[in-house]
Amino acid sequence: xxxxxxxxxxxxxxxxxxxxxxxxxxxxxxxxxxxxxxxxxxxxxxxxxxxxxxxxxxxxxxxxxxxxxxxxxxxxxxxxxxxxxxxxxxxxxxxxxxxxxxxxxxxxxx
Amino acid sequence: xxxxxxxxxxxxxxxxxxxxxxxxxxxxxxxxxxxxxxxxxxxxxxxxxxxxxxxxxxxxxxxxxxxxxxxxxxxxxxxxxxxxxxxxxxxxxxxxxxxxxxxxxxxxxxxxxxxx
Lengths: 110, 116
What we know:
The complex is a heterodimer of chains A (110) and B (116).
Chain A: E1 4-7, E2 10-14, E3 19-25, E4 32-37, E5 43-49, E6 55-58, E7 61-66, E8 71-76, E9 85-92, E10 98-100, E11 104-109
Parallel strand pairs in A: 2-11
Antiparallel strand pairs in A: 1-3, 3-8, 4-5, 4-9, 6-7, 7-8, 9-10, 9-11
Chain B: E1 4-7, E2 10-13, E3 19-25, E4 31-37, E5 43-51, E6 54-57, E7 64-66, E8 76-78, E9 87-94, E10 106-107, E11 111-115
């Protein structure tokens, strides 16, 4: 059974700091996705990682995928308040079903 | 281009009542999904569909039913509502098997259901 674990589940940090969210999964997959959910809102796609070594960046967020380690990271550089949200990672199983992590609630304090 | 449209946005039900959450997408996506999200929690898959006429159970299907008579629509039926069904419901769609096999979901805005 494919399992996806995120850590930390909750992160409070100061603006200007760097931090990394980790997403581990239990079986082989080379398709991993990051989504963002603002409080009281829906989910929106952030990054799509489709191969080992894939790296995607947008603004202060950078995501990477290591399929051999079954690990993806979401790195936040010089955090700003607007990045406060819950971030989910999800992994494709063999039937195009996404297995979701529990989410990381990120609070960035001014 | 509306994307995924869910109605209603909010609904309060009494225990034992039934209702249907509507979901429509205009992106010609083949896959559609219903998730529920309890407060402070992640997503749980209720039902999904890989195409018109085909549906299958997810992780938490009890108390729900779905149908998919067209590519565009995927309604979720709640029968005999219970307080445990109080949640936010998200419909999503995707074109599975697209470029490089990516399966990127587009979500609706959500439907907040309270059962009292």
